[in-house]
Write a structure and sequence with these properties.
The relative contact order is 0.17. Helix content is about 45%, strand content about 15%. By secondary structure, the protein is α/β, with parallel strands linked by helices. It contains ten helices and ten strands. Helix 6 crosses helix 7 (about 165-175). Bound molecules: NADP nicotinamide-adenine-dinucleotide phosphate. NADP nicotinamide-adenine-dinucleotide phosphate (NAP) binds next to helix 10.
């Protein structure tokens, strides 16, 4: 079975638009783009397009590639203090001279729709997520959309980054999966992976996962975004692995669209939470 992220994301976006239209709140997302990286510009553009689709207002703050940490922090403060803005998304990665952790920590936790602020990470690990990071949240939505059993499932997550691997583990653990997190120092990755009912790969290496690493019938979720010979591909060698896996996400068209749908969901949630706070 090919897991169709575009289709599921489309349905989620329709739902967010309906919720926005019926809620009486007007969510607003601010994106912060620093520099001219073409990939970052493309992602920011896609996020603004999604906002338009779901009737979320969006504003863009652009800073030059030479911006200092202080200049970025000043912009974040301005957005934090603007009551018309519910969500702030800082497009990563940042230029080398900008201290990423300071920038992430400067975003007001209640506007941190990416879910990277330590407060939101803490809530996630406490089992009471406010804004779960968008990519792992999107993976959970995909698994649920296809009724993939999670409770008790032996799950291997390849990659332990703060934005994907670790929050993915927290969300799956919260749903009673049995988790193994693999990383670059993991020994016998193939043996570890072959035991898993669900594999989530967030390594960032083209066609790194081959069919001999997958248990027949396992669910394979490919988060990776890589380019090989100028073509977009995931971490999984899709053509091989699709014949062994029970279900698999393609790249493109799998996890990517879900990340954006989750961002829209988080922005809507932030707006609703804020409107409730204003009432009380
Ligand atoms: N689809 C989406 O919306 C979306 C969103 C975010 C990211 N991505 C993509 O997902 C991929 C991962 O992103 P990221 O931000 O998590 O990357 P990252 O911060 O570079 O993390 C990569 C992880 O892979 C691990 N790793 C490297 N080589 C390995 C190996 N041989 N065996 C097992 N693990 C290995 C690393 O281990 P160490 O910790 O030991 O170094 C690290 O934990 C990238 O391709 C990125 O573009 C996609």
């Amino acid at each position: 079975m090919i897991i169709d992220g575009r289709m599921v994301a489309g349905k989620r976006l329709d739902l967010v638009r309906k919720q926005v239209d019926e809620s009486g709140v007007q969510p607003c997302l601010a994106t912060v783009l620093i520099g001219e990286d073409p990939g970052s510009k493309m992602y920011v553009r896609m996020k603004h397009e999604a906002c338009e689709k779901v009737h979320i207002v969006s504003v863009k703050a652009c800073l030059p590639a030479t911006a200092t940490t202080m200049e970025v922090l000043a912009k974040i403060r301005e957005l934090n203090n603007d009551p018309s803005i519910n969500g702030i998304l800082v497009q990563l990665p940042l230029p080398l001279q900008v201290e990423t952790s300071r920038v992430i920590q400067a975003v007001a936790p209640e506007k941190d729709v990416d879910g990277f602020h330590p407060c939101n990470i803490g809530l996630l690990y406490a089992g009471t997520p406010r804004f779960a990071p968008c990519t792992p949240k999107g993976v959970m939505t995909l698994l649920d959309a296809y009724n993939i059993p999670i409770q008790g499932a032996r799950t291997l997550i390849a990659g332990r980054s703060i934005d994907v691997g670790r929050p993915m583990a927290a969300l799956l653990l919260h749903r009673d999966a049995t988790i193994t997190i693999a990383h670059s120092k993991t020994r016998n990755l193939k043996d570890e992976m072959r035991r898993a009912d669900i594999v989530v790969s967030a390594v960032g290496k083209a066609r790194f996962i081959t069919s001999d690493m997958i248990k027949p019938g396992a669910v394979v979720i490919d988060v990776g975004i890589n380019y090989l010979d100028g073509k977009l591909c995931g971490d999984v060698d899709f053509d091989q692995v699709k014949d062994v896996a029970g279900a698999i996400t393609p790249v493109p068209g799998g996890v990517g669209p879900m990340t954006i749908a989750s961002l829209m969901e988080n922005t809507y949630l932030a707006a609703v939470e804020r409107s409730c706070t204003n009432v009380s």
